[in-house]
Amino acid sequence: MAVKTISPTDDFSAVSPVASGGDYLTYRVLPEPDVFIHTSGGARIPAHTSILASVSPVLENMIDQPRKHRSSERIIPIHGVPCEAVTAFVGFLYCSRCTEEQMEMYGMHLLTLSHVYSVPQLKQRCIKALAERLTIENVVDMLQLARLCNAPDLYIKCMKLLTNHFKSVEATEGWKFLQRYDPWLELDILRFMDEDESRKKKSRRQREEQRLYIELSEAMECLEHICTEGCTDVGPYGVELRKEKKPCSKFSTCRGLQLLIKHFATCNKRMNGGCLRCKRMWQLFRLHSSICQQTDSCKVPLCREIQMKMQQQEKRKEDPRWKLLERKVASARALSALSLPKRKRDEGIRVTMNNYGIRSFNFK
């Protein structure tokens, strides 16, 4: 095979860029090259051991290896990639620059070279450029390369693209090749997709649960608001409800709670525990009592009575789900209190209760 030598006068190895102020570059002449890089295409790229060793520890070790004959020239073989890619790689070692055209044509080869010869600056540049050029057609090749070159950022981007467009990727030649020759990577992909779906389901479930806790926290605020100030149709006993009173800021929740309180006050089934709506009202009373911090001054009916009953039953085994609900609602209420202004309360209203707390309400 004929060996082609790149002339130093036409190549970067004869000069070195030096910043001279502003955006301009001047060049200083380097000494004669003392090492040649041989490529698979038969090219000889002249270079300088001092520059190569200062940028790449792998090349430094190769340069420091003893030669058989002192008079023989130093040769570093870089095979397996196109000659132009090697030229761009050595150019980066000298100038710390790489053109967009070179990255477009040889980005995958440059990533391989930067990983093999430990050039982290070029490696990060390649990872960023290749991530911007990800497509459905090349994602499988990029994924294999990212795994071989230990590029986790590129690996994750490939996995996400593949997961979001799996049907399209499944029809490509790259995927068929992967199934035939790399079943372990295929297994990793399917496992990642399964875990991603599990994470999405868990995230949706957590959002739904958080939404429920926030709604219950809002219901607790509305219950205190109704029992303390009164709203459009229901208010504390002894307080006159004005027709011209404007709805509160959380009227959508407050309205439903007022209707529930009205039903609770007139239902004949609640004594026997046969009404689901009344059971829901009792649960709201119990939930309020479990998180209420104003034991002596609370205006909500049955708050003190329920708390005393709960204290008497402390020795009995509590329902862990109910305890978890209490903690979650209390937490949601605390977060809501930090983000919203505290509702003004009229502490001068006095509320009287009978055994069932019905006379504590005033209905319009």
Automatic annotation (TrEMBL):
<dbReference type="InterPro" id="IPR011333">
    <property type="entry name" value="SKP1/BTB/POZ_sf"/>
</dbReference>
<keyword id="KW-0833">Ubl conjugation pathway</keyword>
<dbReference type="Pfam" id="PF02135">
    <property type="entry name" value="zf-TAZ"/>
</dbReference>
<comment type="pathway">
    <text>Protein modification; protein ubiquitination.</text>
</comment>
<dbReference type="GO" id="GO:0005516">
    <property type="term" value="F:calmodulin binding"/>
</dbReference>
<dbReference type="InterPro" id="IPR000210">
    <property type="entry name" value="BTB/POZ_dom"/>
</dbReference>
<dbReference type="GO" id="GO:0006355">
    <property type="term" value="P:regulation of DNA-templated transcription"/>
</dbReference>
<dbReference type="GO" id="GO:0042542">
    <property type="term" value="P:response to hydrogen peroxide"/>
</dbReference>
<keyword id="KW-0862">Zinc</keyword>
<dbReference type="InterPro" id="IPR000197">
    <property type="entry name" value="Znf_TAZ"/>
</dbReference>
<dbReference type="GO" id="GO:0005634">
    <property type="term" value="C:nucleus"/>
</dbReference>
<dbReference type="InterPro" id="IPR044513">
    <property type="entry name" value="BT1/2/3/4/5"/>
</dbReference>
<dbReference type="GO" id="GO:0012505">
    <property type="term" value="C:endomembrane system"/>
</dbReference>
<feature type="domain" description="BTB">
    <location>
        <begin position="33"/>
        <end position="102"/>
    </location>
</feature>
<dbReference type="Pfam" id="PF00651">
    <property type="entry name" value="BTB"/>
</dbReference>
<dbReference type="GO" id="GO:0009751">
    <property type="term" value="P:response to salicylic acid"/>
</dbReference>
<keyword id="KW-0863">Zinc-finger</keyword>
<dbReference type="InterPro" id="IPR035898">
    <property type="entry name" value="TAZ_dom_sf"/>
</dbReference>
<keyword id="KW-0479">Metal-binding</keyword>
<dbReference type="GO" id="GO:0009725">
    <property type="term" value="P:response to hormone"/>
</dbReference>
<dbReference type="GO" id="GO:0008270">
    <property type="term" value="F:zinc ion binding"/>
</dbReference>
<protein>
    <submittedName>
        <fullName>BTB/POZ and TAZ domain-containing protein 1-like</fullName>
    </submittedName>
</protein>
